[in-house]
Design a protein that fits this description.
By secondary structure, the protein is of the alpha/beta class. It has five domains: 61 residues; 98 residues, OB fold (Dihydrolipoamide Acetyltransferase, E2P), CATH 2.40.50.140; 68 residues, no CATH class; 189 residues, Rossmann fold (3-Layer(aba) Sandwich); 154 residues, 3-Layer(aba) Sandwich (Rossmann fold), CATH 3.40.50.300. It is 38% helix and 19% strand. A seven-stranded parallel β-sheet has the order 10-11-9-12-13-8-14, sandwiched between helices. It has a six-stranded parallel β-sheet with strand order 15-20-19-16-18-17, sandwiched between helices. It has a five-stranded mixed barrel with strand order 2-3-4-6-5. α6 packs parallel to α20. The protein is globular. The two termini are 18 Å apart. The C terminus is likely disordered.
Amino acid sequence: MAAHTRLQDPVQFLKGVGPRRAEHFARLGVRTGRDLLYHVPHRYEDATRVDQIGSLRPGDDATVIGEVVAKGVLPTRKRLRIFRAVLRDSSGLIECAWPGQPWLDRQISKGDLLLVMGSVGFFHGRQLRPREHTILAREGESTDRGRVFPVYPATEGLTHRQIRGIIEANLDELLEEAVGREVFPDDWLAEQGLPGLAEALEVLHRPEDLAAVEQARRRLAWEELFFLQLLHARARHEIRSRQSGDAKRGPPVQTESFLAALPFQLTSAQQQAWSRIRSDMEEEAPMYRLLQGDVGSGKTVVAVAAMLKAIENGFQAVLMAPTELLAEQHRRTLTELLAPIDEVPALLTGSVTGREREAVLGGLRDGSIRLVVGTHALFQDGVELARPGLLVIDEQHRFGVSQRRALRDLGGAADVLVMSATPIPRSLALTLYGDLDLTVIDAMPPGRRPVRTGVRGYADRDTALEWVRSELANGRQAYFVYPLIDESENLDATAVTEAVEELRDRFPEFVVEMVHGRMSATDKEAVMRRFARGDIGLLAATTVIEVGIDVPNATVMVIEHAERFGLSQLHQLRGRVGRGAEQSWCVAFHGGDEIPARLNVFASSTDGFYLAREDLKLRGQGDLFGQQQHGIPELRFADLERDADLLERARIRAREIISVDPDLSSRPNRGLSRELTERYADREGLYGIG
């Protein structure tokens, strides 16, 4: 039985904590000694570069080191007691003031050498208001170097300075145990140019300079990314190691007939994607691949070729969409594409009932239906496939890790192809979908007419709305998108429930309706059906229409308060128009006098992958693409923009290890297995770890 360690101790029993502070630490996610060790600073005050007191001017943000030559507590009329100290260096004197902190008079003595950081103001002469200070030396001691001060994430009842003191009191003991927790061999770390675990943690808590801090951060980022990729690699191996025997290597009769009958040539990006998918399907191990591409890039044609490959090898193919409207749209598209080769897809959704449903279920059971399009209804009781060969899942980002795993399990040994029209940077794709192989269609078919985008202030609103009226009068349709459902006291933005009445007053000659996320699925689909039929001229909506059906006659997208949306979301909204032959337009209204930089970037490009990369730079990763809904843990140390090289290397190394030791049972990998379980034990049901 392993000995208990300070790293495992509840934080309450560490020096300087106790029950009350332990409650405060719990709000920060710090419950054990290990948590405290990994509670690293979120920023640093760099006091290694010291300013000369004589050069300071009001408005400066300064770091100075000086000897305390005078001090005292000054009472005020408002009963506020201010501790003041006069500091001197070789260039001059300056007064420092700490309002409301008279107790500092007992801590700071005349003759002490003090380091202070803060802003310089003017109050009966120059005065510095410190936000940080430390006693570098007592009278008689000497030092002339500054320091880098760690600033920790804090919470009510627990300041970052208190946290700093607690960590300093416990750090040596925790670091001593951390040495024995190192799971990476020295040659691995040398290959990455990274320090060991204990060294990295000591640097982060006791930094000498910011350059060393960055290398230490990258060490923890490597650890974080590697174990996430190890998690993905195990899930991927589990899929690919299933007994299959379903290699689809028969003559490509239907696929070649289908591709030859297309009225256009596949782009080189489509050809490369089809080549990878075809190769996957000809292997014994099941395919598990993500096909990512912007709206209009031609993913569906590639998916149809894959479905035909399954069919011509004697299997059934399934295409699943997240809503009934999308399923019906896919069925119409597939019917048109497959007409030259006489392959007719069936439809199975919640609305397919009675004899029609029984006929579909019977055809799936006996294998006479070889291609079916549907929703989650495909996986309800009573649905059986005679010989499932390919499962295609559309709009991948609508399904989290647990749903993805359930769908994969229900498909048995079938190949799985998941599609997403939400462009995201490769680094984020590998983080969210590292258990899948990734294929990107990164080029658009020639001749596609881009949506023209304009960014306007609200001073131009009347002119823009009259232009919208002219488009509607010509028989076109328009979307108006709002950031809120209901009016908010906290946000200065128009809500869709208010706007729909304003739009009805403004456009009385047209049918105006609304759709938002609090409506039932039935009501939303009813409105969208009417809009698709052309019964509604103007649709006021929230972002629920970000992923939706194609309405070729909709040529105008108006986005209100566009500054409240991210670049990727703006691009997805713009993608709702431009589906037909007519020129389409997007108008993004912003508040304020100046156009936000993000909106200029949005207007300058229709490349979804470029905009996604810029979005990642501008907004940071955070929960940018809904990581939590995917079941992926938040990244605390890794930055996907700066650490893309570490991510790629972590992915390669993790897959290499799992390919030869999938259970991590060999002696060199037991530490990796222990660490993986400790990090992700709560995700055992998703990834089969533990």
